[in-house]
Amino acid sequence: MMHFFTSNIKHHNKVLIDFLEKIGVDSSKIQYLSNEKYCYGCYLYNSRLAIAIAFVLKSYKNTIVLHGQFNPFVWIFLYLGLVNTKNIKWIIWGGDLYPTKQESFFHNVYNYIKKQASKKIDFVYGFKYDCLNFKNINDKALYKQLFHPIPINWDKIDEINKIKKEDSTINILLGNSAELTNNFEEAIDVLSIYKNEENIKIYFPFSYGSYTNRHDEIIKKAKKVFGDKKIILIRDFMSMEQYLEFLGRMDIVLYANDRQEGVGTLVNAILLGKKVFVKKGTSTSFELRELEIEIFDFEDIKRLNYEKFISKNFNIFNNYNNVIKLTNKGMSSVWKNEFYVN
User: Fold this and answer.
1) Domains of the chain with bracketed CATH
2) What is the DSSP letter of 95?
3) What are 215-228's pLDDT values in tens digits?
4) Which of 27, 41, 104, 162 is deepest in the core (most CB within 10 A)?
């Protein structure tokens, strides 16, 4: 069995590669695309085409596990029938499942090829509702629910949870990155009903992901609605400990995403006792509710007065205990039992 990380996504790749090594996967069975060396013994490729060609060739002699499939060459080779699909299993990360939203000839062709190629993959892993969405594309496919490993600094979480908040400012985090799939402008519109509240600050986490002119427009809009002092732009990359301290200062984490995304941030936020809003109908919402984690619907915000919006009207202790199932503590044995022991 070989594990292919066919796209250069530094943060996610390193987390998963470290996890695979920790549970006993032979590093020589891990192949990935990057400009950095993550693990000793892993095979490294320096182009998307090179790793896609290797994926095709090795599919005839090995069971291949695809992690985070954002590589267009892989979809093209699958579409052209060059891959032995009987040996392919795909761990869906979230964004790799859904079509791109950009409207152009190239993106329309890419989405078509990706959808047709997906029909050739017969086994997937991932969030249950992502897998069910995949079955809408390929109804013959089999699936198994599998959560991505999320490393947690438990000592730091416990340390932060002991700190008592000293000021009355309500800090709101919008999304988890600069990715436009966070639907920042929609979130600004929804939150605008609280624009006259003096004690709020809204944070835009643009240090992770690509920053473009569009982000300048988003910040300009936010400042026009709420005023300069209430809008905080995050551009500096933080270490994990710094990020946890930052999350610890938040009161509300709000996701306007239309799909599963940024689950690691949500899990840490829930462990830190934060109030979480996500959109109804997303796989994130379904999975968290199935685990009996109390979250709130993004769509309901427009019907909430300010006091109800900021109130801690949920059981923090129960949320903490239930969300552990989504962390490495809860998932290591599941991954081992499924296919990761050599």
Assistant:
1) 2-150+329-340 (3.40.50.2000), 154-325 (3.40.50.2000)
2) T
3) 999 999 999 999 99
4) 27
